[in-house]
Amino acid sequence: MSVYKPAKSRFWQYDFQHKGRRFHGSTGVEGKRSAEQVERRIREQAAKGELDDASRLTLDVAVEKWWDEKGAALKGGDRLEGRLARMIALVGPNTPLAEITTEAVGRAIQKRRGQTLAKSKAKGAKVYLPSNSTVNRDMIDTLRPVLNRARKAWGAKLPVIDWAELRMAEPKPKPKEFAGDELALVLAEVQPHWHDMIHFAARYGCRLSELFFSLDDLDVSDPENARVKLRNRKGGDDHTIPLLPDDAAMLAARLGRARKAEIGTVWFREKASKVRGRPPRVVALTYNGAAIALRRAMERSGLKASKGMRGAHDLRHHSAMQMLRATGNLRVAQKLLGHADIKSTLVYAHAVEADVRAGLAALSRNSPEPTEAEAGKDAAEQPAKGKSSGAS
């Protein structure tokens, strides 16, 4: 049997040829014997010509075909591979694409909703049901691209699936922002070497991963026209943001020290030398270090308990809300955040609108009630007005 297990995957792969055509991909299973059974079934399908008609492809074969053509190049491949495996197991690896209907997907979704997860291996650990967003990602957001690819690129004639009806309701995200001295509370809970990074993220709305941009992608040669290019982003596209002169000067100084120390980021700390008289050593800050520092700061400052702030991504929310409040322009906020679709930015507009409604309600509650004298005067004037209009 032509099955093997790559060093960097927990799933066994198959690889064979039939009539000069190569068939290869992941079996989606972790045991060799199960992998051999999957490979045997795919060989039989190839011999019968079932794999020539895309609509007759079984789900496991279709997923591997999609993976080879598109999925493997997507960011977060490890997590995606796990989701695909869960989806295949629930829909059924041997299910032909032509038999995947709205009803079939709905049954698989109900199964996923009932699967529990324990976050600890300790005896008696609490178990959790998956959230609606997790169910949507595992089932709909993994299966739909495969079926779309089969229909548009492979020529498969497939049933129409009502994805909107199947999608579980998810709570609308509530962007959070710092008010008053709340950002100062966060800064007080971290070491000073994190301060510049936190201020930068809160102003420009960078994701934590985007903060660790390449030194070559930072252009601060002209402080009045400085910019930084962010790569390897969530959507896979590059995004360039302009920098204010003060921030450009700060980053220029950091850039020089980073290059001299031969580290790959402008964010660093100084570590005292154990040798007396020797200058401190420049040590690069890390993604994991920043994530941990900010998560702890949100908790220790009380902002996690009071506002639900959990970490670095709240700095991005704060930046977007501040930009939208300052400009009132949704397109400017979209440009700052680098959203490809303005629908992603609309959540911030909804949050600002909610604040306006709350403000109007507060104004209404605080409006002074008419005094008894004013009320009596208004009542006395009403007949006079009616009489006057009748005379005319």
Question: Gist?
Answer:
The chain has helices at 32-48, 59-69, 77-91, 102-113, 132-152, 163-166, 182-188, 195-204, 245-261, 287-300, 303-307, 313-327, 330-337, 346-366, 372-391; strands at 3-4, 13-18, 21-26, 117-118, 127-128, 218-219, 227-230, 239-242, 268-271, 281-284.
Notable characteristics:
three-stranded antiparallel β-sheet; disordered C terminus; globular; mainly alpha; 392 residues
Mean pLDDT: 87
Structural class: mainly alpha
* Count of alpha and pi helical runs: 15
Strand content: 5-15%
Distance between the termini: 104 Å
Net shape: globular
For the largest beta sheet, what order do the strands appear in spatially? 1-2-3
Largest sheet features = 3 strands, antiparallel
Q: Give me the count of strands.
A: 10
Helix share bin: 40-55%
| Radius of gyration over C-alpha positions, nearest whole angstrom | 29 Å
